[in-house]
Amino acid sequence: MSEKRQYRMRERAKSQEETRQRIVEATMHLHEEIGARATTISAIAERAGVQRLTVYRHFSDETAVFRACTSHWLHLNPPPDPAEWAGIADPVARLRTAFERFYAYYARTRRMWLVSHRDVADVPALQQPMAQFAEFVAGVGDGLVFGPPGNRDAILATVRHALVFPTWQSLEDLGLDNPAKLDLVLGWVRGLEG
């Protein structure tokens, strides 16, 4: 194969990858602005500056586009890593650190979580990634439980409830800033210690 042909093939592959990335980013921005439910393939194509057929050349269906969008968004906005607080010996300090990280994360990524929670029941392509994130958060909650054995179930339920975005959003809607939210949810847990 000639060098000129190899060069053209590399350039074509690069151009295709750039087009695919524009489609993914257009989808991500539309999801954040108007939600997955209102995002159409036509709107994605228009935002990406391509034809609808080009979107379908890169992605077999809406679910494939949404999966690529979710993966890209999570790459740009990774959730808090439990390793950040795993080494904290004091269970209350560990819990506070986890809540601080999650609440700061939700504050930064609020728009996407709002529309995703709103649209999840109507958009099958969102249901798996949202369920996976919910499992991740539940697992984080499991790792934060402490206290007397008789109260562990109540503490687990409280920690899991306090870690999810809808709880953060509800407290946000009440006008609480993150420090006030932290004090409140830690008070819930401390009240269960026995």
Features:
single chain; 194 residues; mainly alpha; Tetracycline Repressor, domain 2; 2 domains; elongated; HTH tetR-type domain-containing protein; transcription regulation; HTH_TetR; transcription; Homeodomain-like_sf
Give your account of this protein's structure.
Pfam families: TetR_N (PF00440). InterPro entries: Homeodomain-like_sf (IPR009057), HTH-type_TetR-like_transc_reg (IPR050109), HTH_TetR (IPR001647). This is HTH tetR-type domain-containing protein. Residues 17-77 form the HTH tetR-type domain. The protein is mostly helical and 194 residues long. It folds into two domains: 3-75, Tetracycline Repressor, domain 2, CATH 1.10.357; 77-190, no CATH class. It is built from ten helices and no strands. The protein is elongated and about 75 Å long. The model has no long low-confidence stretch (mean pLDDT 91).
SSE blueprint and pairings:
Elements: H1 3-34, H2 41-48, H3 52-58, H4 62-76, H5 83-86, H6 91-119, H7 124-142, H8 152-163, H9 165-173, H10 178-190
Helix pairs in contact: 1-2, 1-4, 1-6, 4-7, 6-9, 6-10, 7-8
Summary of the model, kept short:
InterPro entries: Homeodomain-like_sf, HTH-type_TetR-like_transc_reg, HTH_TetR. Residues 17-77 form the HTH tetR-type domain. The protein is an all-alpha fold.
